Amino acid sequence: MAFAVSSIMLFFLLVLLPLSATAQPYGNVTLGSSITANNANSTWLSPSGEFAFGFQQIIRGGYLLAIWFNKIPERTIVWSANRDNPVQAGSKVQLFADGRFELSDPRGHRIWATPLSLGGVAYGAMLDTGNFVLANTNSVVLWQSFDEPTDTLLPTQTLNQDGTLVSSFSKTNFSSGRFIFRLQNNGDLVSCTRNFPMDDIIFPYWSTKTVDSGFQVIFNQSGYIFLVAKNGSILNFVSSTSASTSQFYQRAMLEYDGVLRHYVYPKSANSAGGRAMAWSTMHFIPSNICSSIKQSRGGGACGFNSLCSFGTDQMPKCECPIGYSFIDPNDRMSDCKPDFAQQSCNEETHETDLFSFNDMPNTDWPLSDSAYFQQVTEEWCREVCLNDCFCTVALYRDGNCWKKRYPLSNGRVDDNIGGKALIKIRNSNATADSSGSKKSKRSILIITGSVFLGSSMFLNFLLLSFICLYAFCFSQQKSKVIQALQVLPGLNIRRFSFKELQGATNGFWEELGRGAYSTVYKGIIKNDNTETVVAVKKLHKMATEGEEEFKAEVSSISRTNHKNLVQLLGYCDEDQNRLLVYEFMSNGSLANFLFENSRANWYKRLQIAFATARGIRYLHEECKNQIIHCDIKPRNVLLDESFTAKISDFGIAKLLKPDQSRTTTGIRGTKGYIAPEWFRNMPITVKVDVYSFGILLLELICCRRNYERKVEAESEMILADFAYDCYKEGTMHLLVANDDEEALNDKRFDKFVMIAIWCIQEDPELRPTMKRVLQLMEGSVEVPIPPDPASSITSI
User: Which of 150, 402, 706, 712 has the fewest CB atoms lying closer than 10 Å?
Assistant: First the structure.
């Protein structure tokens, strides 16, 4: 972790600006030098060899004049001159004696060139920053690739007003795509959909909302990416998770799916923690592009008639609905086309009997409405769409019905949508032949049926077949039920029917909270003459993620028994319904207690800190199977009627076998509470929960969020950084408001800050176990002087 955030701007002004203004006079490309495509050994390297300038073959017979990371196997491209016009073998780039720098094809036709107005060019240089420059004899930069980015920013690079990144068209097609990241002339930093193939903007789906104030985007050597005003003050962090450029290669890339991602790649096995070395994502914006784009023109995050869903791998996924397929099977972001003849509008052959609906829950195509109806039934909604030859999809939700027109745009699948989309498709046994009338078709059926029904043998055969079919279906259904019961063996908690929980929640009426895969409702379970208030967590019918979350929660929580863990009372796994029944926590979450109400009592906050620590210690060291929670944060600590803290939400916990001490998995948790090893491909241990607890402990004792923009000084924005600065400088009183006299007068305040600093050490080996954390908090063990969290010394 990089502390002293206030030094970012000072560091930039003193160190980074000179790098962008002056070329280093080594590794020069002399006048007259050239490189020819198809010569694998001909490149211009930076002094360290980390970056290379030359030709990369991207398709058979097609080359880009590019800059790439040269010391990693991926040879990741960070800049190109001719992305929309790949050249053939034999093309050449040359730095002429008069200073012209041009790319020409084998016939000598100019494909790309730097401005002709450049004068006094003495040499070129590929710098270790990834910047290629042309400079004069005084090493003053006259042109640099950093000023003409394609889709990538690198550390020490800046994006000035009107500076633009344009995404590639696809993962393998490097030409300009459908998305733009731009610092506009009015100061607003935005991500937008592009009116492809033109450059004008259709819809800004992410913005810093800094009109009249944004001046420059800076990617500094500490790994921070932020927007500053003209006076140098920080307006917005594009990526606020730091990583050392001495240990990691870094890049921020606007990818073909419209997401700006901050990537890191370990420079050595030590940085990688012994794991496989690869690019990993530190931060990305927007958080969910599928729900961010809602435009009146264009297909949305994916193509027309397509559906976008955002998975746990942080990547949007484009799919076609049932009955549709991609126009270009090789481009998963292309439009989807129906695989059937659409409904005829001929009045005599409306074909309503040839079409039916496929139901897709939590699905919508916003802004594709042709009609809207209120207070109707689902059956009515189906019928009105079926009788409308222009209706492609009907959406039904909470008694409301929308008819959707073709083509469909802004398609998305998201748990927060609710309701269902009714997708109209032609029946598999129906044809598009409408020459005969319905009456003639029915006559044929009647005649054919009469012939067969005239035979008693046929009737007996038909009856026997029906009995066999019923018996088969019954056995299949029974096996499915048995299989569902065997998913979670050995549990001694109550199993509810879906009907019971539907009644207990009054039809899932009162919502208590909502998460990525679930919604929690208040319910009342009646037993004889008693009533028990409960919280019913309804998992959405997604894909494997929802199913895995259900199994993880029930398996882990049902085997725990501690006063500082939320108790699981029961579950339901009937058909496709997955629900969990918990004890009801009447005082809500710690987040509400800390941040949304008046200042919480100091001693009550201490009790919550101890209770939370005991709950985590139990998960790590005392329950039968060790559990890593992976998402310790104030919203996952709940308070009962006496404000006793209990840890909840084990949906992303990693349940370990008794002989295991570590595990590896994709990045999980919540921004601001995630331990650094998640981003470094290091093994994940219980120490990730210790790190999250350290951040939570700081929030508890300081009674403020870990990240706040509205502070008096920039150095106070990130609480973890601010806390270490105050501890080091002996100004601990700055961590609490002036009216928090109880905290200031309690000698434990300074001690708890020191404990929190130990918990948030970057090196997981330096962090104490939760057992040791409790000993430190209780005073049975003296708290040593904590080091800078980014340092490496002997652990405690």
Answer: 712
Residues 567 and 617 in one domain: no
Look up the domain containing 406 and give its range: 307-426
- Between CA 335 and CA 118 the distance in angstroms is 44
Task: Identify whether residues 350 and 230 lie together within a single domain.
Answer: no
Segment 342-367, tens digit of pLDDT: 888 876 666 788 899 999 999 999 98
3-state secondary structure of 786: coil
Q: Dig out the tokens for 169 from the structure.
A: 């068209």
Structure token digits, residue 614: 């005991």
**One domain, residues 610 and 663:** yes
Q: Do residues 749 and 663 share a domain? A: yes
CATH code of 774's domain = 1.10.510.10
**Coil, helix or strand at residue 781:** coil
Does the annotation place 537 within a ligand binding site?
A: no
467 within a domain of the structure (yes/no) = no
Alpha helices in 344-390 (DSSP H): 378-386
Closest to 125 (Cα-Cα) out of 22, 221, 56: 22
Residues 157 and 282 in one domain: yes
Extract the runs of DSSP E, i.e. beta strands, from 505-614: 511-514, 518-527, 530-539, 568-572, 578-583
Question: How does the average pLDDT of the chain come out, rounded?
Answer: 81
The residues near 422 (Cβ < 8 Å, ≥ 6 apart) are: 357, 358, 359, 381, 382, 385, 393, 394, 395, 396
Rounded Cα distance between 755 and 758, Å, is 5
Question: Do residue 741 and residue 613 come from a single domain?
Answer: yes
Nearest to 413 by CA among 553, 330, 517: 517
Structural domains in the chain (count): 5
In sequence order, the β-bridge partners of residue 356 are: 425
Q: Mark whether 259 and 313 lie in a shared domain.
A: no
Q: Could you tell me the pTM of the whole model?
A: 0.55
pLDDT of residue 200: 83
Q: Per the residue annotation, which of 631, 649, 721, 725 is the catalytic one?
A: 631
**Residue for token digits 């042309």?**
134
- Which three-class secondary structure state does DSSP give residue 91? coil
Beta bridge partners of residue 572, listed in sequence order: 579
Report CA 305 to chain centroid distance, whole Å.
23
Does 631 participate in catalysis according to the annotation?
A: yes
The enclosing domain of 279 has a CATH number of 2.90.10.10
